[in-house]
């Protein structure tokens, strides 16, 4: 079996690939184990005092305090709250950007392209600071606005690519049965493009969740600020690594859960479920409301109009 770009690997190539994978895994595991051992070794400060290693029990007894877990829980909820609100706005902005970029009118398409490229090129942190200083929206809405606009620009480009990848006959058939260009875009092209691009969109939402940590700079009390600022300052620097480790574990749990969801959706919306072919895809019938219920007369009209 071979693809367009390369031949399928043979038995020797597959065996070599497995061997390289095993060796690489062993090297990574050995490096991680060495790092854990080094971090656990006691250290001597400049004044000669011996400090316990980072895995010493004296650096972790703070987690017996319920206040610590309550603070981390509130920080995690604040992070999820910002991510959820920003995700909704990012999707809406992405839809607007995609339709603006695909507009037939240059008066809409060109300004949309300029704004999209500007928002894609501007760092999220600078955008947060700009919104906070200029509009005085507060730390929460400064973070939400910056995350929404930036990720909305990325999602908009993904949706535009999905619409452009559809067969041309999809739009022609919609116009042929009497739909307006806007209705054709919303009722025929956009649902198919959104389904095909859904794994990419969810992957971008994972990035959005991670970028909520940037709101630490504008003073929003999210997970990173709660763990490495409030708790570390209250209990002392000796626990800073412990708080860092727990915050990292929470972030990894959240992000890996979303990544797992993205992989599941990618499998369910692969070529068998999400692809569009000219044989199976049918235009939307505005009278029947069923995207697959198109009578013979409408099909004939579509073929003559195409």
Mean pLDDT equals 81
What is the string of helix and strand elements?
A: HEEHHHHHHHHHH
Task: Say how many strands there are.
Answer: 2
Arrangement of strands in the largest sheet: 1-2
CATH architecture of the largest domain: Orthogonal Bundle
Sheet-strand content, in percent, reads under 5%
SS-based class: mainly alpha
Q: Count the helices. How many?
A: 11
Largest sheet: 2 strands, antiparallel
What is the 3D shape?
A: globular
Uncertain segments are 272-306
Q: How much helical structure, as a percent, in the residues?
A: over 70%
Radius of gyration over C-alpha positions, nearest whole angstrom: 26 Å
GO molecular function: transmembrane transporter activity
Pfam families: BPD_transp_1
Subcellular location: Cell membrane
Transmembrane segments: 20-41, 80-104, 124-150, 241-262
